[in-house]
Design the sequence.
């Protein structure tokens, strides 16, 4: 009997350990190898503020080799779509192609390691071993070349120029960097529900952080409630109804946490990607415990994007492809906006894209959810088209104006 209770107690302790790990496995963890060969291991906050595997690294690819698949006339036809390219370069140097700055947009969970190669550039290795040479993106210069912070367990600033390589890995079983849980739950929006990690007002992501607002018009200072007390938040009038775990409710207003000044509610999940929900599209949120197995191991090794392209003339072209002459891996993200929600969706979660007009496309996801997206090159006539790689080293370039529908395998 004593042996039975000891085993029972051991099982309980093991289950508690797994739950504790589950709450933190969503946080970036890495071995940071310095140039002096020392290693700093721990939770990582990247230079752009990224702390979760679902957060995005935005950099520019050094090499744009997709243009080599186009003829001179096809390249010249793109000039009307982008005035920022030095197209005269083609006329001056007949043996070279114009340079186009293209971006790599992927989650930290999709990256195996980052090798620092210069003050503003690096080599990124994906989980399948593929290497991409990248530089700082002109629109977002915080993602390369800046100090990062490693919590091991105390926070330590690590200078970019002292780093040799950052090797990402699953966190250990005893990993416990914060005295709080990650915010996780289900957001109700004008487009339906989204479940995942939550960043409230784009900056609050821990249950120890506080929701702020005024209970009445007389208050001079905000009332604050830690998220670990809150069960749900529902938009109402010019504020929000806060429901606590105790079932008590209050109405908060006059703070950007609970009104239209909110910078956006970010929802992220390893499967379907990332969405930024404007206050206009937000209805409510129900907080819950984070499920297990949403850590680094949940991000699968990338594969080439395989597409079946149907043209306006009824032709069907199949093969690995380069989408928008840029994205070629299924962990890269398609971007678009719909009804005050901005989406970033990995290609491996997209089933189909149907072109509706020059300004928008209908995107069907693997869960059969359908989004009509606009306001980005990926889903409008600003898309540079698709190169489909055929057998025997052949290829086919299809301008976006010729695309009717794309299905992904």
Sequence:
């Amino acid at each position: 009997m004593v042996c039975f209770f000891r085993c029972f107690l051991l099982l309980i302790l093991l289950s508690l350990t797994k739950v504790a790990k589950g709450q933190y496995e969503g946080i970036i963890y890495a071995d940071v190898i310095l140039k002096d060969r020392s290693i700093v291991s721990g939770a990582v906050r990247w230079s752009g503020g990224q702390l979760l595997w679902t957060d995005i690294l935005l950099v520019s690819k050094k090499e744009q080799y997709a243009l080599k698949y186009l003829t001179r006339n096809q390249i010249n036809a793109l000039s009307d779509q982008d005035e920022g390219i030095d197209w005269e370069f083609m006329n001056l140097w007949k043996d070279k192609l114009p340079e186009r700055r293209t971006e790599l947009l992927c989650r930290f969970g999709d990256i195996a390691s980052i090798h620092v190669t210069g003050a503003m550039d690096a080599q990124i290795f994906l989980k399948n071993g593929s290497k991409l040479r990248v530089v700082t993106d002109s629109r977002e210069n915080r993602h390369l070349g800046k100090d990062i912070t490693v919590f091991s367990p105390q926070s330590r600033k690590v200078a970019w120029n002292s780093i040799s390589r950052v090797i990402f890995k699953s966190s250990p079983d005893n990993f416990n960097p914060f005295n709080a849980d990650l915010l996780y739950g289900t957001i109700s929006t004008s487009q339906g529900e989204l479940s995942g990690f939550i960043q409230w007002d784009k900056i609050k992501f821990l249950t120890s952080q506080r929701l702020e607002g005024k209970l009445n018009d007389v208050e001079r200072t905000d009332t604050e409630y830690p998220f670990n007390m809150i069960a749900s938040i529902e938009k109402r009038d010019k504020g929000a109804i806060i429901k606590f775990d105790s079932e008590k409710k209050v109405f908060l207003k006059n703070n950007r946490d609970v009104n239209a000044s909110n910078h956006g509610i970010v929802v992220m999940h390893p499967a379907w990607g990332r969405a930024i929900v404007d206050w206009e599209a937000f209805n409510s949120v129900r907080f819950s415990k984070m499920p297990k197995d949403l850590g680094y191991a949940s991000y699968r090794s990338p594969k080439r994007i395989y597409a079946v392209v149907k043209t306006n003339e009824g032709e069907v072209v199949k093969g690995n492809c380069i989408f928008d002459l840029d994205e070629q891996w299924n962990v890269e993200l398609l971007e678009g906006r719909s009804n005050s929600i901005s989406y970033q969706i990995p290609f491996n979660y997209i089933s189909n894209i149907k072109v509706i007009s020059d300004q928008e496309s209908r995107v069907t996801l693997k869960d059969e959810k359908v989004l009509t997206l606009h306001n980005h090159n990926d889903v409008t006539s600003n898309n540079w088209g698709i190169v489909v790689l055929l057998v025997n080293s052949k290829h086919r370039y299809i301008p976006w104006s010729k695309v009717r529908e794309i299905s992904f395998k």
About this structure: The first helix runs from residue 2 to 24. Residues 1-21, 83-100 have pLDDT under 50 and may be disordered. The two ends are 55 Å apart (CA to CA). Residues 74 and 99 are 15 Å apart (CA to CA).
